[in-house]
Amino acid sequence: MLYPLEEKHQKQERAKGKHRGTAMFITNLKYKRQQKLSWCEYTRKEKTSAKTERFVHITDISLDKSNVWDATYYGRLRWKIENEGFNTWKNQGYNLHHKNAEKDFNAMQNYYQLLQMALLLNQLVEKLQNVMLLLKQAGRTIKSMWEDATASMLKETLHSYQLHTIGNERMQLRY
Fold this sequence. Notes:
- The protein is an alpha+beta fold and 175 residues long.
- Helices cover 45% and strands 23% of the residues.
- The protein has five helices and four strands.
- It has a four-stranded antiparallel beta sheet with strand order 1-2-3-4, covered by helices on one side.
């Protein structure tokens, strides 16, 4: 558990909108003999209630009073993006579970990379207006389409020469 910094460390306060925030940081933390890291903590309190949120980040960017706010903002933004991605993989038909990491690291890594490709393809398809219109007219959802695609991939065997042929075809997607 990381505890809040003491008053003797570098600290800044800022009020913005309905929140009041405090950013504290430590620089030049030695890591693996040569690398130096910075540690920052951002605590945000709502002005109208007692609700408090605390965010802690480690970075290889040297922090000072001029950039600590950007570091905490972009650290929280990155965390949000990563959480949204995992939420999508877990709850929207991609079946990402902890059990996928239990057997073999290479299998888990391959599965994760395939999930990334599936999500990318899904996002491209969603951008294609005609596909969305056809799905709607057929009374189908994106999730049911991907479940059918997954089922057909599990059923069919794809040989290396087929992959080579597909890989050499020129294609263009517009959205």
